[in-house]
Amino acid sequence: MYVVGITGGSGAGKSSALRALERLGALALDCDAVYHELLAENEEMGAELRAAFPGVPLDCKAGREKLGETVFGDASSLRDLEAVTHKYVIAEIERRLGRWRAQGGGLAAIEAIKLIEGGADRLCNVCVGVDSPEAKRLLRIMERDGISGQQAKRRLGAQKPDSFYRGRCDYILENTYDSVEAFEMACKEFFIGIFIDQA
C-alpha cells in the first residue's frame, strides 16, 4: 500500500489535497477529525487529558473548545496536550491503515498540520507540503473559522514557517488558486504525476 502524507500550515489547502486523493481512490485520513472523534469517544485518552487538564470538561462541545483555548498560545500546555493525543491519533491511524490494507486498499492519505512533529510521517511513503501565499491563507482562515484578521494572523504566527515544510517534505504543492475547485484539479494532476514518477 502506498501512503501519502499531506502537511502544511492552516489555510494552505491541505483538505483540498486530501479530497483530491480521495477522488483518486485513496483512504482519506484527516488527523484533526480523528483527534476530535477520539476526544469524544476514547475513554482512555479522555482520562489522561482530564489528569493533565483538571477542571476542563471534555464531555461537551463547549468543554472541548475550552481545551483548545487553553492550549492555544501556551507552548507548555500545547506540549502537554500533544504528549497525550499524538500517540492515540497515530495508533488509530495505524489501525485504519491496517484495516484498509486488509481490504485490499492500495492507496491512502494522511493529512495533518503536525504530520512530521507528531511522527505520522513515518507511516508515509512520501510527504507533500502544501504552501500558499499568506494573504490567501488569512482570508481562507477568516472565512472558514469566522474569526478576525488579527486572530488569523496570530494563528499563523504560532505555526511553523514555510521553510520548515520545504526542508522536510519530498514535494511542495503550491496553492495560488482563487477557487477550491481549480486547486483540487491541480492537486489531482500533481498526485497522478507523483504516482507515475514512483512507478
How would you explain this protein's 3D organization?
The protein has about 200 residues and is an alpha/beta fold. The chain contains 9 helices and 5 strands. A 5-stranded parallel beta sheet has the order 2-3-1-4-5, sandwiched between helices. The protein is globular and about 50 Å long. The model has no long low-confidence stretch (mean pLDDT about 90).
Write the layout of secondary structure elements.
Elements: E1 2-7, H1 14-23, E2 27-30, H2 31-41, H3 43-52, H4 61-71, H5 75-102, E3 107-111, E4 126-131, H6 134-145, H7 149-157, H8 162-166, E5 171-174, H9 180-198
Parallel strand pairs: 1-3, 1-4, 2-3, 4-5
What is this entry, summarized?
The protein has nine helices and five strands; from the N terminus they run βαβααααββαααβα. It is α/β, with parallel strands linked by helices and 199 residues long. The chain has one domain (2-198): P-loop containing nucleotide triphosphate hydrolases (Rossmann fold).
